[in-house]
Amino acid sequence: MKLFLDSANIEEIREAHALGVLSGVTTNPTLVAKEGRDFHTVIKEIIGIVSGPVSAEVIATDADGMVEEGKRLFELGPNVVIKVPLTKEGLRATDRLARLGIPTNVTLVFTLNQALVAARAGATYVSPFVGRLDDIGHDGIALVEDIVQVFERHHLDTEVIAASIRHPEHVARAARAGAHIATVPYAVLMKLIEHPLTAQGLERFLADWRRARGAEPVPG
Ligand code: E4P
């Protein structure tokens, strides 16, 4: 399973990219609005850092508008993926963008059937929202597992992005469920790295080293 960063914050993206674990980035209008900066400028900066897929979401709600916005966003760079909401107009736009050779990430997916119609419309990626389903008492990861199995069974090559990830256990479960990608907020990415026993273990190794070597400084 690949890891994408779910963020429009340039500092977070730079930091995560430097770890060498990032395969792409997803943004959404909420994340971009939080930055208070020009949308296209933000996307241009992100694609200057990350060479993998970078999802940028359309704001239009009609297919013509989505396609026009999608075309303009795709001009920013060949790794821009057009994020389109799962609506009738969104499906029309997905189909038209696919015919133009422009990749899409169909977002706000909450059921298997929504994922299926998105794949049939030619979506490159679908994004089931795990955390938001959990919030209303459903099992978001069960949906991811279902979509992965059905896509495999019917030979659909649309990739599944586990989105709306809230904690490390979501990431582990998405990987076990066979998601192709999990898109994670920066805070969750940091939690994937940290473990108290790793910190304690390192502290003990260095203390033992110092004890054995006296005042000799620890390199680094
Ligand atoms: C996915 O691409 C979305 O940007 C994101 O995962 C939404 O997550 P949220 O439910 O935490 O807003």
Automatic annotation (TrEMBL):
* First-tier enzyme category under EC: transferase
In terms of InterPro entries, this protein maps to:
Aldolase_TIM, TAL/FSA, Transaldolase_3B, Transaldolase_3B/F6P_aldolase, Transaldolase_AS, TSA/FSA_arc/bac
- What are the EC numbers? 2.2.1.2
Any idea which UniProt keywords this protein has? Answer: Cytoplasm, Pentose shunt, Schiff base, Transferase
Residues crossing the lipid bilayer are none
HAMAP family this protein is in?
Answer: Transaldolase_3b
User: What protein name does the entry list?
Assistant: Probable transaldolase
